[in-house]
């Protein structure tokens, strides 16, 4: 019984070590690149890059097949294709498929398991044109 207890204790210690190592790897990550996938027939595919800078996080979005007009863009809690409809962080509008936003004081880890959502337009805010999961 004592040996079994030691094995269980060692297993928990190993799991804790992996968890701490994973957290350390995430916190030291300098950038995260994620695919942005078209939704609702928009054909707006591309990528987003979140980069940790000393003073905050820079979010850069590049989409193909996007309209010239402004598209509201946010970080939402949850995952694509149906994240929480209430935005967690506003980003600069995506215009002609491009958006660059700086979020002062933010940390990359804050956005893990969230999604970047590009809305079809201000008029059609409930329709998502492109979405990418932050992992």
The CATH superfamily bears the name Superoxide dismutase, copper/zinc binding domain
Helix content: 10-25%
Structural class assignment: alpha+beta
Count the beta strands: 8
Side-by-side strand order of the widest sheet: 5-4-7-8-1-2-3-6
For this structure, the CATH topology is Immunoglobulin-like
- Quick check: average pLDDT? 85
User: Largest beta sheet, briefly?
Assistant: 8 strands, antiparallel
The parts where pLDDT drops under 50 for at least 5 residues are: 3-27
Elements, N to C (H/E): HEEEEEEEE
Shape: globular
Give the number of domains.
Answer: 1
Write up what this structure looks like.
By secondary structure, the protein is of the alpha+beta class. The protein has one domain: Immunoglobulin-like. The chain contains one helix and eight strands. It has an eight-stranded antiparallel beta sheet with strand order 5-4-7-8-1-2-3-6, with no helix packed on it. The radius of gyration is 19 Å and the shape is globular. Mean pLDDT is 85; it is low at 3-27.
Q: What tags apply to this protein structure?
A:
alpha+beta; disordered N terminus; eight-stranded antiparallel β-sheet; Immunoglobulin-like; 135 residues
SSE blueprint and pairings:
Blueprint: H1 2-28, E1 31-38, E2 46-53, E3 56-63, E4 70-77, E5 87-95, E6 98-104, E7 114-119, E8 128-133
Antiparallel strand pairs: 1-2, 1-8, 2-3, 3-6, 4-5, 4-7, 7-8
Short description:
Helices cover 20% and strands 44% of the residues. With 135 residues, the protein is of the alpha+beta class.
């Amino acid at each position: 019984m004592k040996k079994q207890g030691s094995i269980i204790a060692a297993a928990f210690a190993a799991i804790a070590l992996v968890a701490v190592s994973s957290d350390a790897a995430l916190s030291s990550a300098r950038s995260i690149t994620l695919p942005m996938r078209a939704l609702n027939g928009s054909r707006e595919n591309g990528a987003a890059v979140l980069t940790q800078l000393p003073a905050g996080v820079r979010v850069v979005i590049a989409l193909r097949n996007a309209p010239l007009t402004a598209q509201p863009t946010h970080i939402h809690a949850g995952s694509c294709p149906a994240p929480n409809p209430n935005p967690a962080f506003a980003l600069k509008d995506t215009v002609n498929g491009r958006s660059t936003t700086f979020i002062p004081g933010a940390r990359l880890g804050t956005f893990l398991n969230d999604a970047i959502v590009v809305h079809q337009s201000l008029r059609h805010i409930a329709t998502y044109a492109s979405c990418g999961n932050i992992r």
